[in-house]
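User: For documentation purposes, I need each entry recorded in a consistent format: the amino acid sequence on its own, followed directly by the corresponding structure tokens. There are two entries in this batch. Please keep commentary to a minimum and don't merge the entries.

Assistant: Recorded as requested. Entry 1:
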Amino acid sequence: MQMLAVLEYIEETLSPIVVHSLELIGILIIIYGSIKALTIFFKDGMNLSNSLVKITLGEALSLSLEFKLGAEIIKTVIVRDLNELIILGFVVVLRIVLTLLIHWEVKQAVLTGDLERSGNSIQKMETSYNGVKESDKETTNE
């Protein structure tokens, strides 16, 4: 009986701390990714056709949603009634769909042919999405 009380105490004190920490990490990633994307956007002379801005922000949003999804999953431990569980379920499904859409959009932007003009960082991103390392690509070209 004492072990159950200890576990409940840990759940009530530790779970909210972990949830808030994961959500804070997600927010910080969004802030960092937004600043990085804005920097790229302004350095390129506010070129609206630069796909690197879209890719940078999309990847930051996708990673952020992963942390926020982790927080939502941990929240399921804290849920006390059915209404909270239903709302939490909808939030989790929505975040999963958003993560998949952002990932798909970023992958499509990386795989399009118009990204070659954006420089070396795009080539590295393309190879990471295709699963080929830059060094492997160079050895096959020789």
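Entry 2:
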Amino acid sequence: MQTHNGCGPAACGALSPEQEHILRGHGTEYPGSSPLNHEKREGVYCCAGCGALLFSSAAKYDSGSGWPSFWQAEPEGVATRRDTSHGMVRTEVHCARCEGHLGHVFPDGPPPTGERYCINGLALVFKPAEKANG
């Protein structure tokens, strides 16, 4: 089981109805509605469904899309599949472990990858980095 910095099933707890709708029903939250849009602390972003490590704050950036955005996922954290819903062709991003729907990835992100992982904030749990003892 992939865990990091407090991520894990026990750290996640029960899903809210909104999280169920996104992760299990392939829903989307309203743009600009996630408090994670404004999260600037160092840390990691885990799957709200199973606790798998998905993204690092080092890869987060403000894309202006209204959803938390990352230019890179953590190794083996996410998987993708073709999504032809809503009359368009996109690449869906889901948790590699529990297959919960996270959002979509687009080829219009910043260097070095050129990718924009546009992720529903309700599909994520943010875990701040542990502060060094000083």
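Summary note for entry 2:
The first strand starts at residue 43 and ends at 47.
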